[in-house]
Known about the structure:
With 303 residues, this protein is α/β, with parallel strands linked by helices.
Amino acid sequence: MTSHLNIMIRAVLCAVLSVCTLAASADDVIRLWEGTGVKARSVTLAPYRPAVNTSHMAIIVCPGGSYCWHDYKTEGVEVASWLRDNGITAFVLKYRVQGKFQYGSYWRYLFGGNQHPDMISDMQRAIQYVRENAARYGIDKVGVMGFSAGGHLAMSAAELASTDFLAFQGISHSVSLRPDFVAPIYPVVTFMGEETHRRSRRALLGEKGKNNIALRDSLSLERHVPSDCPPVFIVNCKDDPVVDYRNSMLLDSALTARGIDHKYIQYSSGKHGFGASRTKGSAECRQWKAEFIQWLRNHGLLK
């Protein structure tokens, strides 16, 4: 009995230490809606600042998770740490999601839960915060990077920038909500065809919205690329078993048709969810990090 108790205590201590280590790796976490009428205490922005921000830019990182949860470690903390190691200030955004319990139970049928436009509102609030605190962080450019459903949210930031979702919450500001560049990595893109990632669609739009054709169309990224879309960097793998690889192809085609500056890299192997990991995915797909850094240099964003 004593042996089992000791094992349990050690396990709990290890879990607590792990959480504390992750928290300590970021600067003070910002609660984005604090002081407003929006009751969303779970929405946070965690800064990861390099010793010297040689790039004078920031990237807001959106972890994926089907709009149901966050892959906070692989697609959040590890990504932000890698960007910080390259002299880039990063912010990990924990935006509102449906929640595993709410998605898997009847809760969402009865109460709806978090759904559009909650997520894009959180995204715009993050951009507002970073731009309004640019002097504090020593930045003059703000990009957005997202993974899977977070990639959909990142690209939505570019496509929906002309709609001020913050105004609907009674929040006024004088900054641009348009990101300076976007990097959707193995992104969810469409909600209309057979390529649709249904779990993301259901979580984002809700039980009623998932069947609303107009709403599904409005959030299908390949259908609404604006003429002033910022530069875009896309990566995915053809063997992706989670989000149909054709999602990225649809976005690539739409950006090409609109004449938008972008780069699309499709790897043959790597599957899904590798983020900035040094071990997940494949040696081939892990090249995306070096490709992205070079892309930033080619656009004069990084020396």
